[in-house]
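User: Before I run my own analysis I want an independent prediction to cross-check against. Here's the chain; please return only the structure tokens and, at the end, one sentence I can use as a sanity check.
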Amino acid sequence: MTALNQYQRLEAAGIWRETPLAQARDVIVSFGDATLVLTDPRSEVPLAHWSLPAVTRINPGKTPARYAPGGVDADEELEIEDDLMIAAIAKLHRVIEARKPHPGRLRGGLMLGAAAVMAALAVFWVPPALVRHAADVAPPAQRAEIGRMILSEIAKTTGSPCSRPAGDMVRKKLAQRLIGPDAQIEIVPATLRGALQLPGPVTVIGEDLIAGQVTPEVAAGHILAAQATAIKAPPLLGALRHAGPRATFHLLTNGTLPASSLAGYGEKLLAAPVPRPDDDVLLDYFARAGISSEPYARSLDPTGEATLGLIEADPFRTTEPRPVLSDREWVALQEICDQ
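Assistant: Structure tokens:
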């Protein structure tokens, strides 16, 4: 069955009761050959096989969805909360029902079957819930790979990221200082007027935040602002929305995102204005990183009128913050794009 093949790798957590008086057990729900397989998550031993045509939902429209093998009179019962698995079971039921013979009503059956498939596609492919789910469950390796794909798209407009041995060492130190041990900071030979946070996490800044700046506090401030922005607008979610539900489903089932699905996304990111997070949220980032917020605020508005909140509430307005980089490191970073 073609529809079943689409879900061979789909799994979800469930709660199974073998009898009405039996204790509920956690199980992993997956698809077998025309069956719904319930497996013990610890031993990976199959506990039950339910025929897909006989699986009946006994509480339509309610969550968690409750199923029984044959109807409400069955002893066994299964609860599932995962929206993707619920939608997949519903789709398979509609496909199975559409393929049943309807003597004397062949044309009507064909029309109903086509309508069922179209409804299933509308429910399963289009909803933003699919994209949100993929963004939530993507492992670090997938996020890093998508981040590299987006960086390649950005480089088509800006040029390849800058790299020199001494500057690369400083990039890694700055990423660890501001973001975390697995983070990356990439510098492109272009003017971005801010920092872009990509999945991975990868933060992209332009040469304008390095060359011509007196100290590294401005660049550091924009990098922190990108981290704060990513909390409310996760970069992976934005990328998957651009890629679309079909490409996102390919990511869920095959572990990779088609490269063509991100075509033009780098140009789209560069054309959009760099978002500015709320002052209260951003000030917490500056305080934790031990960096003054005034240099960043002045880079947005030299007069300080539009960024007065960041200047007056600077966590280091009356004390001296620890240096972001040494003078030698800052010079090495400033030279990273030199040919």
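Sanity check: The chain has two domains: 2-124, 139-334.
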